[in-house]
Write a structure and sequence with these properties.
Arc Repressor Mutant, subunit A; 231 residues; RecX_HTH_1st; cytoplasm; mainly alpha; 3 domains; Regulatory protein RecX; WH-like_DNA-bd_sf; two-stranded antiparallel ribbon
Length: 231
């Protein structure tokens, strides 16, 4: 109708209003999806700090850390120098600090591979019945030098080793049952796994059998050692 003023309200032909960059209530600005960018809270800031790499240790701090690691390891049982070296490397201690700390422990006697080897041989031979060969293998795995291993194992002479093998055979025989020939082979195998040579193992098994009965003694004597185990 002529003379009527055009409407400029929010009708169908009204131009869209420009979206406000402020969130309702004057809060932080909204992103394109309409979500307000919330500031980081204390928990988020702590998470960010935890994700940051730790500051490198000073030489003094690294030395203190290395000594703490060593003392915790030694509190469990005696350790060889090689075992402590491995533990320190796994925890990121530098080579220079490792050498410094372990050299000092050597000087004051906190670590002593020769004493460790002697104690290990005595404990494992008389406690577990292990032969010199098995003991040497265990010490090598713990990083003990060969000359120290040889010296420690040499304290067990052949007579002592044979006596220990016989005692072990007697005890083991009490728990074995079945066909005598099968029992004999199992007994020799058990001694061989303890590190005894074929000759020592067969000899101990024969004597243990002979002590049990005359029939078992005859059986043991009739068995060919080469058919039982290899030296």
């Amino acid at each position: 109708m002529a003379g009527r003023r055009a409407r400029t309200g929010r009708g169908w032909d009204a131009s869209p209003r420009r979206a406000s960059s402020r969130a309702p209530g004057g809060g932080p600005p909204e992103d394109e999806s309409g979500s307000a960018e919330a500031p980081l809270g204390p928990r988020s800031r702590r998470a960010e700090r935890a994700a940051e790499p730790p500051a490198p240790l000073t030489p003094r701090e690294e030395g203190e850390r290395a000594r703490e690691i060593c003392l915790r390891q030694l509190a469990v049982r005696p350790r060889t120098r090689s075992e402590l070296d491995t533990a320190l490397r796994k925890r990121g201690i530098g080579e220079e600090t490792i050498a410094e700390v372990l050299d000092r422990y050597d000087e004051v006697g906190i670590i002593d591979d020769a004493a460790f080897a002697r104690a290990w041989v005595s404990s494992r031979h008389y406690g577990k019945g292990l032969a010199g060969r098995a003991l040497a293998q265990e010490l090598r795995r713990r990083g003990v030098e060969q000359d120290l291993i040889t010296e420690a194992v040499s304290e067990i002479d052949s007579e002592t080793e044979a006596a220990t093998a016989l005692d072990l055979a007697r005890r083991k025989l009490r728990s074995l049952h079945g066909d005598p020939q099968s029992v004999f082979r199992r007994l020799v195998g058990a001694l061989a796994r303890k590190g005894y040579s074929g000759g020592v193992a067969v000899g101990a098994a024969k004597q243990a059998f002979a002590e049990r009965s005359a029939e078992d003694a005859e059986l043991a004597e009739a068995i060919d050692p080469d058919s039982v185990t290899e030296d």
